[in-house]
Amino acid sequence: MKIERICILGGSGFVGTRLVSQLAARGLEVRVLSRRREMAKELILLPTVEVVEANVHDQPELIQHFRGMDAVINLVGILHESKIGRIDLPSARRGDFQKVHVELPRKVIHACGQSGVQRLLHMSALGADPNSRSAYQRSKGIAEALVREAAMRHSQHENWYLNGPKFIRGYDLNVTLFRPSVIFGRGDSFLSMFSRLLRMSPVLPLASAGSRFAPVHVEDVARAFADSLDNPATYGQTYELCGPNTYTLQELVAYVGEVIGKPRGIIPLGKWASYFQAWAMEFKPGRKLMTRDNYYALCTDNVCRGGWPPVFDFQPASLEAIAPEYLRADTPRARYEDYRENARR
Ligand SMILES: NC(=O)c1ccc[n+]([C@@H]2O[C@H](COP(=O)([O-])OP(=O)(O)OC[C@H]3O[C@@H](n4cnc5c(N)ncnc54)[C@H](OP(=O)(O)O)[C@@H]3O)[C@@H](O)[C@H]2O)c1
Question: How many structural domains comprise the chain?
Answer without folding.
Answer: 2
